[in-house]
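Per your request, structure below.
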């Protein structure tokens, strides 16, 4: 029964992340704030529409709790929303952890959303430029490489994996036609990540 409970929790977290990804993509393309703030940021970076879609980039509205309110309204479990770091609570108040940030979903090798990176668009030095989802039963950043889901075919094809620094580097390389690229996103390279690459290439 415990195993079943763990599977159910794991599955629930995946489902919430999937819901969040879709919601953030909707914000980016279908809301005024998302288009004016988020989409224009990606376009200023020179990202094409097809690349923005491919990497499922999104935007979390800056209203405080728009995502959390919607998720709770749809019946998602608050404890799970907090466990994967999408929702924070403080003195009875709940709010969106990533509010006002452009969103980079982090995929498993099979393409499931494990967590998110969120980049602030404010030039405020007191605010961390990137927030990442906290560690959870589905997200362990030392065992994940950003972009591997999109890169694995070409890593095998060219028998080589290129490692770059962050999300936008991976996306820029893809846009330039170089797809055998991953990044360790804000952590130093770990043994687990090297092992992960070695499934596809030794180079």
């Amino acid at each position: 029964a415990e195993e079943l409970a763990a599977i159910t929790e794991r599955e629930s977290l995946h489902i919430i992340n999937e819901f969040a990804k879709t919601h953030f993509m909707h914000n980016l393309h279908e809301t005024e704030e998302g288009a004016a703030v988020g989409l224009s940021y990606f376009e200023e970076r020179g990202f094409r529409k097809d690349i923005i879609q491919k990497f499922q980039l999104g935007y979390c509205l800056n209203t405080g709790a728009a995502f959390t309110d919607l998720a709770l309204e749809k019946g998602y479990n608050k404890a799970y929303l907090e466990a994967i770091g999408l929702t924070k609570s403080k003195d009875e108040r709940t709010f969106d952890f990533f509010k006002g940030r452009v969103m980079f979903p982090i995929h498993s090798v099979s393409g499931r959303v494990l967590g998110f990176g969120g980049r602030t668009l404010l030039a405020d030095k007191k605010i961390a430029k990137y927030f990442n989802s906290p560690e959870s039963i589905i997200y362990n950043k030392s065992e994940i490489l950003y972009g591997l889901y999109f890169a694995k075919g070409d890593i095998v094809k060219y028998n080589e994996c290129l490692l770059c620094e962050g999300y936008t580097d991976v996306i820029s390389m893809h846009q330039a036609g170089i797809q055998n690229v991953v990044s360790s996103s804000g952590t130093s390279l770990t043994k687990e990540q090297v092992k992960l690459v070695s499934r596809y290439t030794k180079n």
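The radius of gyration is 17 Å.

Regards,
D.
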